[in-house]
Design a protein that fits this description.
By secondary structure, the chain is of the alpha+beta class. The chain has four domains: 88 residues, PAS domain (Beta-Lactamase); 109 residues, Beta-Lactamase (2-Layer Sandwich), CATH 3.30.450; 66 residues; 146 residues, 2-Layer Sandwich (Heat Shock Protein 90). Helices cover 33% and strands 28% of the residues. The protein has twelve helices and 18 strands. The protein has a six-stranded antiparallel sheet with strand order 7-6-11-10-9-8. Strands 2-1-5-4-3 form a five-stranded antiparallel sheet. The longest helix has 30 residues. The termini are far apart.
Amino acid sequence: MTRSGYVAPPAFARVSADGLLLDAEPRLAELNRRAGGAPGQPVAVPQIGMLVALAGRLGITISRTIVAADGEDDLELTVTARPDDLGIRLEATGWDARAPWQPSGGGEADFLRADADLLWTTDASLHLTALTAVTADAPSIDPAQVLGRPVTRLFVLDDDGEGGFALMGAVAAQAGFDGQTASVGDDAARMRLAAVPRRDAAGRFAGFDGAAWRIVEEAEDGDGGPGDLSDAFSRRIGRALRDPLGRIIADADSMSAETEGPVGDAYAGYAADIAGAGRHLLALVDDLDDLSAIERADFVVSVEDLDLADVARRAAGLLALRAAQGDVRIDRPSLDQSMAASGEFRRVLQILVNLIGNAVRYSPPGGMVWIRLERDRESACVIVADQGKGIAPEDQERIFEKFGRVDPGEPGGSGLGLYIARRLARAMRGDILVDSAPGEGARFVLLLPAR
């Protein structure tokens, strides 16, 4: 185990090809004994045993950080399982003992703190134990001047008009709070405070995990300005959801691919469904983030020279796997084609991924999606055509509305993609048009200023 200023050396062990512990250095041997194992038996620490089995089955070296229960503590180790001619050679480094509980509000705290300007933590007696400035909007504070001091040394609290304080009420109830306003720092910056309670291993109140946001006084009418609540909430929820959704998708994909070993056809199918649902939710988070951005009064796009043919080829390449899975072919512009235009590369790529992705989604198996380039007076055009079921004339404007969908019960996106795409195109002095009829597929045309 580690002590302050001391790093424990690695510990080694030898495991047979069939997973039996042959010999181990004292620390590993003792850890295995406390887990109920002994030499000549399978490795008793479950996480290490899993690594041994996986390395043996795949025949490759695997290294992972694990947390193993060790008496009243948890033990964090980095374990490397290396197959060789004699079986598996184990190496364990780290040996960091830590409390078996994390005194925080968990996912609730992560969400609360996702978009904060200032993060703070207290112990049960409301003395500050941590203070971190997250953004440039955070007031300038020297942590050394306030750590270990009462939280009121940092925050000059406002009462609720009747002599009450949200923070103090939360202490009495041992609960979370939001909406406490305060002055902070030498410049008396106005901030809104919120926190969730920390709990120790016995469930007792152990302090607060808190956050603070600078109050933007000039944005009170909710018109999409810098302090608009809906915009701040959208950014908070996006940041809070992206990381856990990414982990869900990665783990589900791993289960579906059976990289950790066989899981059975039914469970592999469930995992694939979970990954698909996770991707759908992640796309919705991205759409909401974009929606928040494009509806701000100060939203602008950059203008740069670009080759529409190159952007179209890149977008088609990003969707090649999805198209192949649906037995749809994409006929993209050839490498010798070019079309000079003006716009923001990232946003044009986003638009074309949306248009081509929709064409792939609605194309039948064996169908084709065509991408063509044309010059129309002062506009450079990319045409995306499919062989789908088409769109009735009365629905062709509805699909560009916010959350507009022809058939809400049909599997697909959020109803935001085309709304966002057209808003982006028009922000670049272009547009998106549609030409379609039921049973005849659809043609979407992206127009941008020609260069």
